[in-house]
Amino acid sequence: MTADEAIEECRRHEIAVEIRDSDRALIEKETGEVIAEADDEGEYSGEAVISFLGY
């Protein structure tokens, strides 16, 4: 999934996220926990995002 899609999915679950500059990982703002790491194309695993959200 794209960064925008991943961010929007997290927002739906009231999780504030950001993209870490150093490696483009998607992280939870409050804790700094990595939700998903960007692949070579700059996209994120939908499975990783959904897993983080508890599904």
Short description:
With 55 residues, the protein is an alpha+beta fold. The chain has helices at residues 3-12, 46-52, and strands at residues 17-19, 26-28, 34-36.
Please count the helical segments. Answer: 2
Any idea how many domains? 1
Structural class: alpha+beta
Strand arrangement, largest sheet? Answer: 1-2-3
Beta-strand residue percentage: 15-25%
Give start-end ranges of low-pLDDT stretches. none
Based on Cα principal axes, name the global outline. globular
**Number of strand segments:** 3
The N- to C-terminal Cα distance equals: 16 Å
- CA radius of gyration is 10 Å
The ordered H/E elements are: HEEEH
Proportion in helices = 25-40%
Question: Biggest β-sheet, characterized?
Answer: 3 strands, antiparallel
Give the integer mean of the pLDDT values.
96
Could you please describe the fold and organization of this structure?
The protein is globular and about 25 Å long. A three-stranded antiparallel sheet has the order 1-2-3. It has one domain. The chain has 55 residues and is of the alpha+beta class. The chain starts with a helix and ends with a helix. The model has no long low-confidence stretch (mean pLDDT 96). It has two helices and three strands.
